[in-house]
Specification:
CATH topology: Single alpha-helices involved in coiled-coils or other helix-helix interfaces
Number of domains: 1
CATH superfamily: Immunoglobulin FC, subunit C
Radius of gyration: 16 Å
Helix content: 40-55%
Length: 106
């Protein structure tokens, strides 16, 4: 009985991760076409899936939304990206907050 449940959970997590990736791709597509409300909604849904199934959002997509207001960030439209020292600083025009990410040595 427990084997079936664990397989089912693994399957659910795999499906949730795929949906999160698909939602972020849709968010990017809608943001590029100028429909930022739709892209914000897709980010909201992806975060909700992530929290419900305890699946981390892939690092590639973590930097693409504001950690404060959860809007999809599109440089030049609703955010500003600068390099300051050894950090990438992203400024969200929606909530007026800064997010800083360290630049890693390659």
């Amino acid at each position: 009985m427990s084997k079936g449940k664990s397989r089912n959970k693994k399957q659910q997590k795999k499906i949730a991760k795929n949906r999160i990736i698909k939602l972020f791709n849709l968010a990017e597509e809608y943001a590029l076409s100028g429909r930022l409300k739709f892209s914000d909604r897709y980010v909201f849904l992806a975060r909700k899936l992530s929290m419900r199934y305890l699946v981390p959002i892939p690092p590639k997509y973590k930097r693409r939304f504001c950690k404060n207001c959860y809007t999809y960030l599109l440089p030049g439209k609703n955010c500003r990206v600068r390099i300051n020292g050894k950090k990438i600083v992203t400024y969200c025009h929606n909530c007026k907050k800064y997010t800083r990410f360290p630049i890693r040595n390659i």
